[in-house]
C-alpha cells in the first residue's frame, strides 16, 4: 500500500475566536471536548498544546468544554494573552497539536535534585522563558529549585548574562552612564524622579527604566505616569535621553531582560524572594540599559523586604561582587526601612510629594528630600561630578536652586507633556484610639490598606500619612487619611482596617 507523503498532508485546523478572557499572562485555549482535533490528537484537559497560525507559534494551556453552548465544534476560543501573542483575527485558521518537549526542562529537573547549573543550562532556560514556552508550573519549579538550593555566585552571574542575552541592549555615546535601583519593600519611597532630575541637571546620563507595581500600591512607572507619559519605545527613550540627559520610562514598553517580569510575577505569587534571583533581576536590567555605574538603595527594617543589617550587608557585598564580574560598578546604600518615605502612598499622592520637593514647597517631606539627595549624591560622586563625600551637598544645592525642577519639567515635556496628578473623590481619616506616641508602623499592612482602596489601578487612591515614628498624638487625632476614587473602595479598605490589627501602633 502506498503511504501518503507527510509533507503533503493538510493539518486539521479550527477557527480562532476571541473570548475576552483575561488569564494573568498565561496563554489559554478553550476547545470542545468532542471536536475533531481533540479526538484526532488525543488531547486531554489542561495539557500544554501548541497553537500555530500565520507563521507564529504559541504554547497554551488547554481547557475543554462539553456541549454546544459556548463553542461550535470547529472553534477554538483564545484568552487575550494567547490572542495577542498569536496575532490572529476572528475566524482565522489555527492548528492545535501536542507541544514538543522542552530540552531546557532537563536542566530544571537537575536543579530540583540539587545539581548546580552552568551558563549553557541557564541560557536554555531563560530563552524558553522569554519565548513564553514555560507554563506557570515550569516557572514555579525553576524558581523554587533556585530557592531551596540558593544560586551561588557563578550561577548568579550566568543567570544575569542569560537574562541580558535574550533581550535588547542599549548603548550610549558616553563613558559613564548611571542608574539607580531600590530593592523595594518600603511604601512611598519614590526617589527615582528626584534622583534622575538631579543627576541629569548636573550633566550625567541617566536612562532610567522602571517597573509598574506588582504587589505594592505604586511602582515608579505608576507614579511617573501621573506626571508624564512613560510608555516609551526604544527610539523615543533614546531621543529623550539624548535631548535631556535622562528619562523615567516604563521598562515593560521595551525589550530589556524580558524574562525578568515573568520570574518576578511568579515570585510574588509564591511569596519567595531569593537573593540570587533578586541580584540577577536588578543587574540584568541595568546592564541591558547600557549603565556603567549603579546606586542600589537597600531599605532595612522589621517590615521591609530586608529585615536586618546583617542580611542587608550580605546582599550588598554579593551585589557588588556580581556587578563587578559583570562589568558594572555598583555602590549600595543601607537606608532606614522602619517607616514609609514621604507622606503619600499611591501613584498620585507620591507624585505630589515629588513635586513638593522639586518646587521647594515649605511643607515638602524632608525625609524624601534627604533620601533622594543621598542617593543622587552617590551617583554624582561615582560619575565624577563631585568629590567623595560632597555629593549630597551638591544634590541638595541642585534642588534648592531650582535646576532639578527645571530639568524635571524638560524631561516630562520630552516624554510627551507634563500632567497634573488626579485627586481622589473620597477621603477618610484613621484616628488614634488613645493618647500616646507612635511606636511602630507596619509597612506591609499600609501597602495592603492602600491597595484595597484601589491603588495603583486607581491612580488617585492610596494613603496620606499624618504622623511619623516617635510623634506624640492625642486620641481622635488622624494618623492617616485614606484616599479612594469610589465610596465602595473606601468602605472595602476601611473594613480591612477594622480587622488588620495595628497598622500604626500608638502606646502611652
Features:
globular, 508 residues, 18 helices, alpha/beta, six-stranded mixed β-barrel, 40% helix, four-stranded antiparallel beta sheet
Structural class assignment: alpha/beta
Strand order of the largest sheet: 1-5-2-4-3-6
Radius of gyration: 25 Å
Distance between the termini: 94 Å
Count of DSSP strands? 18
Instruction: Report the uncertain regions.
Output: 1-9
Q: Hey, roughly how much beta strand do the residues contain? A: 15-25%
Helix content: 40-55%
Major sheet details: 6 strands, mixed, barrel
Q: Indicate the mean pLDDT.
A: 92
General shape: globular
SS element count, helices: 18
What does this structure look like?
The chain is α/β, with parallel strands linked by helices. 40% of the residues lie in helices and 19% in strands. The strands form 5 sheets. Strands 1-5-2-4-3-6 form a 6-stranded mixed barrel. A 4-stranded antiparallel beta sheet has the order 12-15-17-13. A 3-stranded parallel beta sheet has the order 7-10-11, with helices on both faces. β10, α12 and β11 form a beta-alpha-beta unit.
